[in-house]
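In response to reviewer comment 3 from the previous cycle, which asked for concrete evidence that the modeling workflow produces usable outputs, we include below a single protein chain processed end to end. The sequence was submitted unchanged, and the resulting structure tokens are shown without manual editing.
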Amino acid sequence: MKIGFFTDRYYPQVDGVAVSVELFAKELIKLGHEVVIFAPQSADKKQTDPAYVVRFRSFPSIWYEDHRDTMPFTPAIIKQVRSHKLDIVHIHTPAQIGLLGMRIAKEDNIPVVSTHHTDIDQYVRVYKKMMIGVLLGILVAPALMKATDKYKEILPYLKPNRSIKTWNRKLILESIGIFYQNCDAVIAPSLKMVESLKDYGNFDNVHILPTGIDLQELDIKTDFKPRRYYQIDSDGPLLLFVGRLGKEKNIQLIIRSMPKILESSPGAKLLIVGDGPYSEELKELAEATGVRQNIVFTGMLNRAKTFACFKTSDIFCFASLTDTQGLVLNEAAIVSKPIVFLDPEISPLAEDKVTGILAKNSVSSFAAACIKLIGNKDLATDYGKKAKSIAMTITIDKQAKKLLKIYSDIV
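The workflow returned the following structure tokens.
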């Protein structure tokens, strides 16, 4: 089977979409299928890609930080994509490259699948400028997809509402809903995203399919010793966050919880692995809160070093309310780490009193959950073991086979 992944988010950008695309692509190739990833050109001209990646010229987005925009609708690009003679079009983002995939799928009568990775409605509330890009996309999308009949469905929602907030939300839900209605199947990576889809419309062919973890990553060799390198006591409590440093990740709650945690465990440290547009603000918050000396910002680390951080930590902290599946929860769970989290619908690994502790979105609640796990090592160990047992049921080899079943059914 020849499968085309169309995504506006891909490496070297590191986020849930990029990771999911890469994991599924590699596993489908292992299973004997041909995969082509269509993605924006990296800002780094020296970026080297696997043979299965096709890049389109891109430029920095003015709507969304750390994003690349493209205009891949030239006859040459459309001819290039068609030359691959795809059996399946799988869209991972409903932006420019996603629209290209939809257009080719509809014109050439190719079955099309879309994964609802991102709740755009929620993201626009955090990144206000995104709404301008969304509005522009709504206006030009039907023309780009050669589906001008869709303007009849969209035009009624372009009339401004008395409440700008209500109008924005209605525009997003209706336009993205129309996009998904043109798909033969829609994939939601979590129960949370199934619920989110209900706001966008009623869809007949929805599948829950979390992205699994590649167990081979656990075997990557490294001499990196995080506690030694960052001068952290070998027996001191170590909290960990891994991910993009964006405002929407709510890392600020973890930092604000540190003073209370330190009152109970003065030797506790917080390791923040990753980078992003909100990194400087987080460092300033750590200074203002008086806990900068107890927090280590590592910046971006490669996969081997990142897993070394997972293995040496005691508790994984995840305060995001906007994530759609929290792939880092898989990584924490597979090395038997208990989790403190806010959203029980984000992943099968987020189960209160089973894999960790469900906290409220408050400093006192989040800190209390961390303090409880620090003070009760047997409980933390038990939660970690249960997390690993669940993670083993959704490894990427198992999930890729489920994805192939979805493809086969619609073909």
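DSSP finds 16 helices and 15 strands in the chain. We consider this sufficient to address the reviewer's concern, and the full set will be provided in the supplementary archive.
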